[in-house]
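Submission sheet (multi-component)
Chains listed below:
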Amino acid sequence: MCRWLAYTGSPVLLTRVLYTPVHSLIDQSLHSRLGAETTNGDGFGVGWYDVAPAPGVFRSIEPAWNDQNLRELAGHVRSHLFFAHIRAAIGSAVQQTNCHPFRHGRWLFMHNGFIDGFAAVKRDLVLAVDESLFPQIQGTADTEVLFYLALTFGLEDNPPEAVARAIGLVEACGRSQGVEYPFQGTIATSDGESLWAFRCSSQGKSRSLFFTRDVRALRQQYPDREILSEVSDDARLVVSEPMGDLPGAWVEMPEASYGVVSKGDDQLLPFVPKRPQKSM
Amino acid sequence: MCRWLAYTGSPVLLTRVLYTPVHSLIDQSLHSRLGAETTNGDGFGVGWYDVAPAPGVFRSIEPAWNDQNLRELAGHVRSHLFFAHIRAAIGSAVQQTNCHPFRHGRWLFMHNGFIDGFAAVKRDLVLAVDESLFPQIQGTADTEVLFYLALTFGLEDNPPEAVARAIGLVEACGRSQGVEYPFQGTIATSDGESLWAFRCSSQGKSRSLFFTRDVRALRQQYPDREILSEVSDDARLVVSEPMGDLPGAWVEMPEASYGVVSKGDDQLLPFVPKRPQKSM
Amino acid sequence: MCRWLAYTGSPVLLTRVLYTPVHSLIDQSLHSRLGAETTNGDGFGVGWYDVAPAPGVFRSIEPAWNDQNLRELAGHVRSHLFFAHIRAAIGSAVQQTNCHPFRHGRWLFMHNGFIDGFAAVKRDLVLAVDESLFPQIQGTADTEVLFYLALTFGLEDNPPEAVARAIGLVEACGRSQGVEYPFQGTIATSDGESLWAFRCSSQGKSRSLFFTRDVRALRQQYPDREILSEVSDDARLVVSEPMGDLPGAWVEMPEASYGVVSKGDDQLLPFVPKRPQKSM
Amino acid sequence: MCRWLAYTGSPVLLTRVLYTPVHSLIDQSLHSRLGAETTNGDGFGVGWYDVAPAPGVFRSIEPAWNDQNLRELAGHVRSHLFFAHIRAAIGSAVQQTNCHPFRHGRWLFMHNGFIDGFAAVKRDLVLAVDESLFPQIQGTADTEVLFYLALTFGLEDNPPEAVARAIGLVEACGRSQGVEYPFQGTIATSDGESLWAFRCSSQGKSRSLFFTRDVRALRQQYPDREILSEVSDDARLVVSEPMGDLPGAWVEMPEASYGVVSKGDDQLLPFVPKRPQKSM
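Outcome: structure written.
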């Protein structure tokens, strides 16, 4: 229902990733190919890390394809790790506080998908958010609640565990309300050092997710591509939908799995939501 | 922190009330005289009743003084009962879902003031909202929560009782968190038939509130004023801050009181918040 | 590149025409079928006549599909003659002053199409606008310049003649700059009494345009359709792209023609741009 | 009618200049002291130079005081030369294309003031813009026309001469239309290397303009101020209205003068508009 992109590697100008490639994310805002919706025009957001203590976040309710300020920002901001998200809203209002990525301290979080039956479970979910975090919820999107649940369950210490518990709670609450498939989606989160990407759905038919093959291998295959010589060996893109025109550049993330991109240590592992132990 | 206006009487074009008078509400968005803030530029809203089942609501995050669409709407919409509100945000985001008036079914609700220490009591307050109403909260403003509390406590059956209980709960929650003066403000609510206006604050120093004297008396005093001959005998304006240039036209609502304007039966009565009976 | 709709007939609530039908104009903002662009998300506008001296105009740069204020307005405003336009911008900025319909006095004007090579001919075209009208141009869209040219050439007295001269000038200026097909599009204009719709392009392959068959005939064919019994015998819709689900309801406007819908006197006539007499 | 600020010196985070000082420019958007208008809430803009070929420009129609994206940008972007402008519109529409600073190639341009009787002279002025520049005018503000006139008259080669000729033309056109005082204002322009600031008005009563005293002298006076040790010896701020709380830090620019801040060579010189030689 949305599209997103996460980059980690040597610092690049955002525009090189957001605008330059064929079928770029900005093109996908108007015409995506793989999405449940072909238009992702209900706002967008960019989050980027630099030397500041917290990542910058720029969000707008205009469609990304005609936002002049995004174009300016992308042409002047460089980052070694950034997120971009284009939204196709399903339910919650089109307003900046509902645009991804969401931020808490040094953490960013974004999602393509939804909590099914959100209206029915929202109260139970927000009640499960830690009391000290509760007042920091600024919007009304399902993803923001999911983010605060993950924070409640220790995102800052163990992201895979915290996300598994958050989705597990969503599934438990949803099923208690008769929702067949409570969770759908792909998620990215980061602390500015490492990047975690999840693909998971209650139905076992998750939204698509792809990551780039090793840059060194791509350079051998496409020695003339300038962008490949610009970025570092450990550069990695994770996207909802492939962009660019380099056949063989993308690997699909398997169903029910997650990946971690960290300094010199990338891993791909199975992912299973964790049901809450007892009482709901 | 905001300014508002409520009109009830024979149908008039909104522009006659919103734009035409000297020191009109739209002027007050840029330069109010009596407000805690002189600029009320953080969005606005208009709600109006006509023959449709529910009132119309137009809200925008642009300052009212330069919103061309508001000008157009006001020049073409007639109503026998309408609300207008200009906002000076204190805390919650400037977004349409935080603009007053709020609507539920046939009811409109708006407020000038605030719940002090809202972050500390928000969780307790939203928990007290009826579970069936909870998912309908669309924004993050303190006033919207107050509205849903009033709906929970029977606003549709007995507005003064419901508002007294809602504010009473706000005061109880606030005081349990050490807030000295938890509630401040003036409130208007309506079902399209009657209009209720409240002036109340924990400190006993409430935001200002005024209503117009009897139109028949005003007509005798100002026989040349066109607007006075246009409107019906029972027309009534309630405002945060007087507008126009008719000395003697305005009566200040007393501290800790509320007024009801209903068909041929206007009343002004004392108002006291009702503390919750037992457990919080 | 855009989609538009014009209604004339007995007064109806805008929502009945804009939102209710299958494949409505609002649906077309997200997924049009016949347009050069499938998404028309670069703002929209509505213009409507009522008893006021000038038509009301509501314009926004948000996509129509998620504009809550448009939904409210459409649910509360009734009109006997109104225009609606959804925009897919090609070149000029996405801002309210570039949204159709444009207004001058009692006249509304909207367009689906473009002036090819506009940057090259803009100076010559605005120079041809009457000096007294020139300062009233508020935006930068090609269509607004076309409207002011038509006003210069007597739109208020003889719309077909004025539009023919305006397009003729566009073609002459364009060709002098080497543009092969300077004009493309369909146009609607009205004074609140009559409605004129034009289909014309330099290439002879104009954007699509349709109008409804006689309502009395449609009622016989579809006796159960509520909307058909609501509207008057002389009701007429002109649209870029058919909506609703009534086979046989729509007639395609022929290439190079225009229609007039006036009280009891509808006409369909050939349309040819008029070249300027002499020097350009 | 507006307020602006220009900084040149060692690279600083924008927030240090825009938000940190007492009575900062962002505070002035809500409550200015010296302006003709106390509220400057009709949009804003920031332009900044970095290593990119052209300066970045971020413009918005929201009031600066509550624009979250401006706050983010200012907290993450560093620049050695940047402009910021807050607008109080007088006439032209509140839209991004009318927000200052305006940009052409490497040049930025902003203005506090107005062309009096602009509607009457606009046609003559835009006709005087070079034909190749004409199509690049994107908005409808008087200042943008002034900028394009200055570009036409050689801004990129000799800014003081070009600005003098542009204002001279404005005065000649205005007076031929009976406008007593055609031009009012202060102007800043830059190519990313040097900064020019002008103070001038037909009436001889120009909007206020101030610049900072030599940083070395300020450091001696205020040894504890962190910002003063952060910036380079040649750092300079030019502002419509003093900010901060350092008595003696500001020097008023004299009436009818201009200043140039260039590498190691600051000058303050008289400024007189140049009337066009012959026919208008």
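Remark: The mean pLDDT of chain D is 92.
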